[in-house]
Amino acid sequence: MLIAENPTISAASSVTAQSGAAGSSWQRQAKLWSSLQDVCALLGIHERAGSDELQFQHMQFKAGQRLHTIGQPFDMLFVVNSGFLKSVMIDESGNEQVLAFPMKGDLIGIDGIHGKHYNTETVALTTCEVILIPFKVLSSLGRANPEVEAAFFGVMSRELIREQGMISAIGALSAEARVARFLASMSDRFSAMGYSGTQFNLRMTRQEIGSYLGLTLETVSRTLSAFHAAGLITVEQRSIEIRDMKSLRTLRRLPPSRNKQAVPKAVDGVVLEAAA
Amino acid sequence: MLIAENPTISAASSVTAQSGAAGSSWQRQAKLWSSLQDVCALLGIHERAGSDELQFQHMQFKAGQRLHTIGQPFDMLFVVNSGFLKSVMIDESGNEQVLAFPMKGDLIGIDGIHGKHYNTETVALTTCEVILIPFKVLSSLGRANPEVEAAFFGVMSRELIREQGMISAIGALSAEARVARFLASMSDRFSAMGYSGTQFNLRMTRQEIGSYLGLTLETVSRTLSAFHAAGLITVEQRSIEIRDMKSLRTLRRLPPSRNKQAVPKAVDGVVLEAAA
DNA sequence: CGTAAGATTGATGCATATCAATCCCAGTGG
DNA sequence: CCACTGGGATTGATATGCATCAATCTTACG
Fold this sequence. Notes:
The structure is a homodimer.
Chain A: H1 11-21, E1 33-35, H2 36-43, E2 55-61, E3 66-68, E4 76-82, E5 85-90, E6 96-100, E7 107-108, E8 121-124, E9 128-134, H3 135-144, H4 146-172, H5 175-192, E10 199-201, H6 206-213, H7 217-229, E11 233-236, E12 239-242, H8 245-250
Antiparallel strand pairs in A: 1-2, 2-9, 3-8, 4-7, 4-9, 5-6, 5-8, 10-12, 11-12
The structure holds a DNA duplex.
């Protein structure tokens, strides 16, 4: 019933049509299709959805390839199944601003809903496998299926909250605190994917990290070196080992006084003063 | 049915209580309920919705009152009908971070959908009149009404894009560029509400503006004074007059080289060097 | 092996935070 | 009606965190 009620779905055909429209060399991986269950599990949605008949196509991208570009007509959301990407915006003077580093379980493309065109572009940093979710399919699915609709609202809301956190961090935290938080966040995400949370490889450049955090690449590099010298981490090029997670997480640093509305609350984290 | 299903409102009493304070001889608490059409028009949604029977309650808040607080169970969205507010987040060290200055036509509370609790708090800066939208009503409405659902997705997506813009601005622009952009944005919003876009009164403190822009109140104050000295605006306490909108809008300033991916593209805006 | 892109590290300067002293204005009570 | 009061705004002096400029160093790769 879910599928039948929307004639445009019939996944195979619509997806095939879509991939043609994208123009770029979308490598058709003769491989997988995922059920709605799989997708929900990937997104961290617990709700149970009824039918299983609906299948979503997988697709592979190699490093450097774009899932979508700015201004391209919006029709598709993507759920990352494996690999690492970056989502960027180009500001009015042509500079690149990194907005997110999507990885397994992340939803990509929400920004395209409003205005019917993507407002960002998402680039694969490594080989990636993503699941294609035609937006029309999702919305008709949600209409018939309150749980799915609610879950989708939830995912969008979650993304909104994440961005609010970024605004707060970039606006109020020191460079050290931002980098520390970034590392902690990466650790959490790797853990959530089942990888080591203490030993991992960054897939992005210092420049991309800097753009994401509102810092220059030199500051990122220096801060990582300072953390290393202070014994918080071991860093060697892209390879990171977390040695003192607690200190990383409690690292606040000087500007805890931008908008003192509440108690300053003594800093208990490592402060790195002597390290530099 | 839709209205009755949410018992927490019991609005008549609370609204009466609120409006009772107005000592003015001016009978203007007139409209206490709005139709779906009204709400859509307010939100800038063009889609047409079917039934008219559904009415949404209005409610008044006086300066300093909170529409919702952090951690409070989520059940309600708000659409601003008049007045000015601020939405804030409290970071881990208890500092206040301003995330938005909602005014007429803005939707409040989206961040509560995920997690079933509000993640921000919204405070009235002036007397406000808001329309209450029980979330359950909205979602069941959307289910029956594809246009409404699509419009709501659109509003959430729009909000996401707005926040991406803030991240980019805070991360990459100079203080002057941020303040200039803030003024231009305020001007646009006042214009959209039918007020003068060149002469208006700010309703928030310098501290709140600073928090919103990731700056200190002193920097905001100094920058406004510099704009005044440069002839771009006239500022006197909270009163602002825009004298050179074009320059305000094209003001980029020094850090146009944070992430030079594209052509530096010569700056054509006023640069204010001599002004300081 | 040579080249280019990325990373590290140093030296320096500037934009903005911080500290501090008035100033202005809206309430409020004598 | 007017001094008093307190929050907000302005302005100045100074400190500093981070950007900028620049020189290696490392790694990946054709």
